[in-house]
Write a structure and sequence with these properties.
This protein has 187 residues and is an alpha+beta fold. It contains six helices and eight strands; from the N terminus they run αααββααβββββαβ. Strand 5 and strand 6 form a beta hairpin.
Length: 187
């Protein structure tokens, strides 16, 4: 009886650990589990961006920094690699470049130069979306990671409910909620 209870408890713990439903310091915090995996991913991103033309050194470094955190879980009010909310992620990434960015997405928009035409976006610019409800109120922010200057479509890195990820502007959820764009702090 006692050994079956121990096996059952061990199975539940293993399941919780595997699904990330634990606050243990041993839980998988990001997509990458080692420094080597992070370095390999950064090299892959460098190769990927060669086909998009020349990027400034600051743009490459910004992307390399942002991509390191893909897979980090969403945490409301989060500002560290233990968990980010959308504006906390933006603030954290730019802080790595000694650039102070306001804490909330609305304040980030208010403090930045507007970009009216999406075809003028550059890597590192900020894009703003309404929150869960479609409205004109800013509720989400991301960092532009790719741009097609002919069509104005772009990809952005952000912290969503499923964690830090890269998403296309053509994603139906975000396409309906897109509001505005601003020049990034490194521009």
């Amino acid at each position: 009886m006692k050994s079956s209870r121990i096996i059952c408890i061990a199975a539940v713990c293993a399941l919780l650990f595997h699904t990330g439903c634990t606050n243990s310091v041993f839980a998988n915090v990001g997509r990458y589990e080692s420094t080597h995996q992070i370095q390999q991913a950064a090299k892959g991103q460098d190769a990927h961006y060669k086909k998009f033309g020349k990027l400034k050194v600051s743009e490459k470094e910004l992307l390399r920094t942002a991509y390191r955190y893909i897979g980090v879980p969403y945490r409301w009010g989060g500002t560290t690699p233990r968990g980010f909310d959308c504006s906390g992620f933006v603030t954290y990434v730019f802080k790595k470049f000694n650039v102070k960015v306001p804490r909330t997405s609305a304040a980030q928009y208010d403090s930045s130069r507007r970009i009216k035409d999406k075809r003028q976006l550059k890597v590192g610019d900020l894009v703003f979306f309404s929150g869960r409800r479609i409205s004109q109120r800013i509720g989400h922010v991301g960092i532009v990671s790719k741009v097609n200057p002919k069509t104005g479509t772009f990809a952005f890195i952000h912290s969503a409910q499923t964690g830090v990820q890269e998403t296309s502007s053509e994603n139906p959820y975000y396409k309906r909620r897109y509001l505005k764009a601003c020049a990034g702090p490194l521009r």
